[in-house]
């Protein structure tokens, strides 16, 4: 009798387990629409802007501001996935995303993104100030309309101009605290803006076949690998002096200045390795783009460390 009871219990439990697994998988898909890997850097840079701003926010309001930045970035990612579902379906690295894979309906994803976007802007205005809410709204519109809908499929300069979308978070964090725009957050905006092309073009050097197959005019597809390598070096050379501006204008101290210089020298080393990578006549890597992959990975560490050093330096000067 006990065996029958046990087997019956297991049989009754199986559908519940399957339902629970399906529910967990669905939750993961809705989270995936927010592009969580991208979110980590967005949230971090927004937090840095908030921490280094003069003045302070009540902890609850500060958490609310970061939550708004998170939801806004996620909303932009969801709307981007809705719009790009056709090209995502033909690219190896994106075809398993929830919409092209058929796990989430496109209209539902769009509604999800719009609700999060409107909610994040409204909450930011109520929790902090309406200038911060306006800048937050501008960042969403820039990413969705200017980059995703206009630039991405039309010009190889999509990443250069579209990089502004990812440069907003430090500015938003600052404005959430101060209610105003100042020189330093604009410098941080410029730093992230200039960081984006070498970061993304290093990635595109080994992902260019995906973009070519999808008809997206990324720089390696339109101008070739050699020109892309040259642009990685040029933008890195322009970026490194810019990162020293907070120290030069007296906003930060020697800790940040030294860290920025060392990080910059290392970034330049990686960019030079991308340029001098063994290539064929067309500029295609003969090493499997190992230097480009290393440059891409370092560029992420670089920005995290650079912004972290700025916040630490401000803490030491306080």
Whole-number count of domains: 2
The coarse silhouette is flat
Measured distance between first and last alpha carbons:
73 Å
Low-confidence segments: 1-14
| Portion in beta strands | under 5%
Report Rg.
22 Å
Mean pLDDT: 91
CATH homologous superfamily label of the largest domain: UbiA prenyltransferase
What is the helix/strand order?
Answer: HHHHHHHHHHHHHH
CATH architecture of the largest domain: Orthogonal Bundle
CATH class of the largest domain: Mainly Alpha
The secondary structure category is mainly alpha
Helix content: over 70%
Largest β sheet strand count, sense and barrel closure = none
| Helical stretch tally | 14
Main location: membrane
Transmembrane segments: 38-55, 61-83, 104-124, 130-151, 158-177, 183-203, 232-249, 255-275, 295-312
Membrane topology: Multi-pass membrane protein
InterPro entries: Protohaem_IX_farnesylTrfase, UbiA_prenyltransferase, UbiA_prenylTrfase_CS, UbiA_sf
């Amino acid at each position: 009798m006990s065996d029958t009871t046990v087997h019956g219990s297991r049989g009754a439990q199986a559908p519940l387990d399957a339902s629970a697994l399906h529910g967990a998988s669905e939750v993961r898909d809705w989270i995936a629409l927010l592009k969580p890997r991208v979110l980590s850097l967005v949230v971090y840079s927004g937090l840095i802007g908030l921490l280094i701003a003069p003045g302070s926010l009540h902890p609850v309001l500060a958490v609310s501001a970061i939550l708004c930045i998170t939801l806004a970035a996620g909303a932009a990612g969801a709307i981007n996935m809705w719009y790009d579902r056709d090209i995502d379906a033909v690219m190896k690295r994106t075809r398993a995303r929830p919409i092209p894979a058929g796990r989430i309906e496109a209209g539902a994803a769009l509604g999800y993104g719009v609700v999060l976007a409107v909610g994040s802007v409204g909450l930011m205005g109520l929790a902090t100030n309406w200038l911060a809410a306006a800048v937050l709204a501008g960042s969403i519109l820039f990413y969705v309309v200017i980059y995703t809908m206009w630039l991405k499929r039309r010009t190889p300069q999509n990443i250069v101009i579209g990089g502004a979308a990812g440069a907003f978070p430090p500015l938003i964090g600052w404005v959430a605290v101060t209610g105003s725009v100042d020189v330093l957050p604009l410098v941080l905006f410029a730093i992230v803006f200039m960081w984006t092309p070498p970061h993304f073009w290093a990635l595109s050097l080994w992902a260019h076949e995906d973009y070519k197959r999808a008809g997206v005019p990324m720089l390696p597809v339109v101008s070739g690998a050699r020109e892309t390598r040259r642009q990685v070096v040029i933008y890195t050379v322009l970026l490194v002096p810019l990162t020293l501006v907070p120290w030069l204008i007296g906003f930060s101290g020697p800790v940040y200045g030294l860290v920025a210089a060392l990080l910059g020298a290392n970034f330049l080393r990686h960019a030079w390795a991308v340029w001098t990578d063994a290539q064929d006549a067309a500029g295609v890597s003969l090493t499997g783009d190992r230097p480009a992959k290393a440059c891409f990975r370092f560029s992420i560490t670089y920005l995290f460390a650079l912004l972290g050093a700025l916040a630490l330096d401000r803490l030491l000067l306080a």
